[in-house]
């Protein structure tokens, strides 16, 4: 793979397109923990070709919510926002996301064990709020997202100046079991309310980003409006849904899931009984990565049905243009190459879970906030975007 050079300046390439972009365009960024760095690489290539691209609708879930929040709140051009996003991920390390303390990890595990065996007899020991402490991530986001008393003030600025129509960050409510998307948008942007999913208008803050990115059990839940929330991917069964509800009719979605061939899918990545890391990886993939693909298939089928109906029978439905972008390599397998550089205490925990017993440690790739791994993901994303540059350009120019 010939990776294109990283975006080192704010100058676009010579064939940059001055088009501001379609007015119905949405950018959807899914989850995947550390894998969200891949999305940044893809955006670097797009920004070179479309330095002044306007994206009216932006949605994010899990780690994708971090990227969504920065893009939605940046005051500058698209290429400047992507440059800042690149700098964010380039300097991110494990210590910026959670505290790595072997004794603290052991203490939390012991507390979990005591809760398990206590059975409510004699009062439960202090409840463990996540396996690690994510206070470093909160402080880091407050700085890089330029929050004022926690508020992402740049979003309101872009809404007032007409640069943005709406932004949505999805979370999962541990209190009710619902998928809750927190939206901030123009007054005419409508929310939605269904039994298992709803939208709440709010002023977005760093806490909303933290809640969306709170990996279940591993990261502590976040309290919003008296309820407790965790990673948005847990309950978001239709990742494209928020963008459609907000009003988008042209969606560019960046997945972090490698699409395996039939031969690759049938090849076992472990031998013998599955270690906890393998089980966790399968669970995490089903939560964060598989649903976007399933939703894209449903949308394409619906498009075909709508296109075959006369306009007077469409009941207000119209085809939605969709472009799904995904890695050309398995980001889980790639994580194996960078695991030895993890901090000792955290490396001890991941190996105890069995990450060295599988050839594709997907769970490890979610938490591998290691600078060299993140840089590799951004380079892969940029190279993949370059391979599809003409397709992306056609998609953005059509109807602009």
Write the layout of secondary structure elements.
Blueprint: E1 25-29, H1 37-49, E2 57-61, H2 64-73, H3 78-90, H4 94-97, H5 102-118, H6 135-144, H7 153-160, E3 166-173, E4 179-185, E5 197-201, H8 206-212, E6 222-224, E7 227-231, H9 241-246, E8 250-254, H10 262-266, H11 276-288, H12 290-307, E9 321-325, H13 331-335, H14 344-352, H15 362-367, H16 371-387, H17 389-397
Parallel strand pairs: 1-2, 1-8, 2-3, 4-5, 8-9
Antiparallel strand pairs: 3-4, 3-7, 6-7
Global geometry = globular
Number of helical elements: 17
Residue fraction in strands: 5-15%
Ends apart, CA distance between termini: 32 Å
Count of β-strands: 9
Major sheet: 9 strands, mixed
**Helix content percent band:** 40-55%
- What gyration radius follows from the Cα positions, in whole Å? 21 Å
SSE ordering: EHEHHHHHHEEEHEEHEHHHEHHHHH
The overall pLDDT, averaged over residues, is: 85
In the predicted model, the low-confidence regions spanning at least 5 consecutive residues are: 1-8
**From the helix content, strand content and strand pairing, which structural class follows?**
alpha/beta
Give a brief outline of the structure.
This protein is of the alpha/beta class and 400 residues long. It has helices spanning 37-49, 64-73, 78-90, 94-97, 102-118, 135-144, 153-160, 206-212, 241-246, 262-266, 276-288, 290-307, 331-335, 344-352, 362-367, 371-387, 389-397; strands at residues 25-29, 57-61, 166-173, 179-185, 197-201, 222-224, 227-231, 250-254, 321-325.
């Amino acid at each position: 793979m010939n990776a294109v050079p990283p975006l080192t300046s704010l100058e676009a390439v010579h064939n940059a397109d001055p088009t501001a972009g379609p007015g119905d365009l949405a950018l959807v960024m899914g989850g995947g923990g550390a894998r969200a760095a891949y999305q940044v690489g893809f955006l670097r290539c797009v920004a070179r070709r479309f330095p002044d691209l306007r994206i009216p609708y932006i949605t994010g879930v899990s780690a994708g919510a971090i990227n969504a929040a920065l893009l939605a709140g940046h005051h500058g051009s698209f290429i400047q926002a992507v440059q800042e996003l690149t700098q964010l991920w380039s300097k991110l390390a494990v210590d910026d996301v959670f505290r790595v303390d072997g004794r603290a990890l052991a203490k939390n595990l012991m507390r979990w064990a005591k809760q398990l065996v206590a059975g409510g007899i004699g009062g439960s020991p202090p409840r463990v709020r996540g396996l690690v402490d994510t206070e470093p991530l909160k402080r880091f986001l407050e700085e890089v997202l330029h929050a004022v008393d926690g508020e992402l003030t740049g979003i309101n600025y872009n809404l007032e100046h007409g640069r943005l129509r709406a932004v949505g960050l999805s979370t999962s409510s541990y209190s009710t079991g619902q998928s809750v998307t927190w939206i901030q948008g123009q007054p005419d942007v409508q929310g939605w309310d269904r039994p298992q999913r709803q939208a709440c208008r709010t002023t977005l803050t760093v806490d909303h980003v933290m809640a969306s990115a709170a990996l279940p059990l591993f990261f502590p839940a976040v309290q919003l409006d008296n309820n407790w929330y965790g990673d948005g991917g847990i309950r978001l069964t239709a990742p494209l849904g928020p963008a459609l509800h907000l009003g988008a009719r042209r969606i560019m979605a960046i997945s972090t899931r490698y699409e395996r061939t039939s031969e690759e899918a049938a090849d076992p990545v472990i031998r013998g009984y599955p270690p906890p890391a393998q089980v966790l990886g399968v669970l995490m993939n089903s939560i964060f990565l598989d649903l976007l693909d399933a939703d894209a298939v449903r949308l394409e089928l619906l498009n075909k049905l709508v296109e075959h109906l006369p306009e007077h029978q469409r009941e207000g439905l119209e085809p939605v243009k969709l472009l799904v972008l995904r890695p050309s390599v398995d980001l889980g397998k790639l994580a194996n190459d960078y695991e030895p550089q993890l901090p000792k205490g955290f490396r001890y925990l991941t190996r105890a879970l069995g990450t060295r017993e599988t050839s594709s440690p997907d769970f490890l790739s979610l938490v591998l906030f290691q600078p060299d791994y993140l840089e590799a993901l951004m380079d892969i994303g940029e190279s993949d975007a370059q391979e599809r540059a003409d397709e992306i350009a056609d998609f953005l120019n059509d109807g602009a």
